[in-house]
Amino acid sequence: MVRRGIPRGMARGCGVEMTRHALAFWLVMLLALPALAQGLDISSYAAAYQIQPGGEVAEEVRIAFAAPLNESAANSLRVGEAEGIAVQADQAAIPFRLEEGVLSFSTPAGTRELRISFRAAGLVFRGDGVQQFYVLLTPPEAGLVQVDVVLPRGQVLSGTPFPPGPERETDGERISLAWTFQGSTGPVPVSVQFAPAVDQDLLLLPAGLLAAFVAVGIVLVSYRRQVQRHFLLTFVEDERKVVQRLLREKVVYQNSLERQFGFSRAKATRMLQKLEKRGLVQRERVGRTNRINWTGGHHAADAPGA
Fold first, then answer.
1. pTM confidence score
2. For the segment 15-46, what is each residue's pLDDT rounded down to a tens digit?
3. Secondary structure element (H or E) that encloses residue 131, with its range
4. For residue 139, which of 65, 44, 69, 33 has the smallest C-alpha distance?
5. What CATH class is the domain 8-196?
6. CA–CA distance, 258 with 107 (Å, rounded to integer)
7. Is 200-302 a CATH 1.10.10.10 domain?
8. Contact, 144 vs 43, CB < 8 A?
9. In degrees, to the nearest 5, what angle opens at C-alpha 48 toward C-alphas 44 and 54?
10. What are the residue boundaries of the structural domains of the chain, listed by start?
11. Which helix or strand (DSSP H or E) is residue 134 part of?
């Protein structure tokens, strides 16, 4: 089983800037297993990865043979800086030797299942608040190949796992993904992005505040509209038209009001003088007409949403 860093294309596709550093494990593959050379079938190959909170990965590899090994076999595999190594043949511990990152042991004759477990580092990459587990598996030929990945507690999936379509399960604390392949698979890249779960109670608080602000906003808008209606009722119809335009535009020209509403210059002047006395507008001579500035901004009718 060969492990490498995340290919650049996959890292870009996941949208995560991955940290570059050497992986602790380059090769986990039975290199010298005479039984395999003799054509003894492997009925199943299973690799399970339990990602720990600190990014370390607890891995277990199980190889089940279709028939007991006829003779003992010397095996070696490169595991790098592995910790917590355990090797079992049919659930019985067997001795091993670790030298310069190479694990060596002898599988006894009659073995039906070989199990190797250890803790690995360098399989989880971090970036932009998201973590990504990546491993490239090259399992031996087997009737059944199974891969399991278990996320740390409090973590949820972020993005689509690869290969797509794994079975998903949860025990209420941890999410697990399982892939099953029939027959020979060739290299299998496995990639899983995950991130901390968001506390739903924390989401409810801002949602509640937002609902409260929306409710208050609706009440204020309704109140301002009522105030505006009462304010406009204090004007006669022609004055009301002028005030409504001033409320919208804040600055208009007298000759524009005359053209829009069909007022004579004298009528428009009288109307604007009346508004000026109420402190609502200010007239400013510009050429042959007047520029009218709305100055009733302090009035409730001029409030936003009016």
1. 0.56
2. 333 333 333 333 333 333 333 334 457 888 89
3. strand 130-137
4. 44
5. mainly beta
6. 104
7. yes
8. yes
9. 170
10. 8-196, 200-302
11. strand 130-137
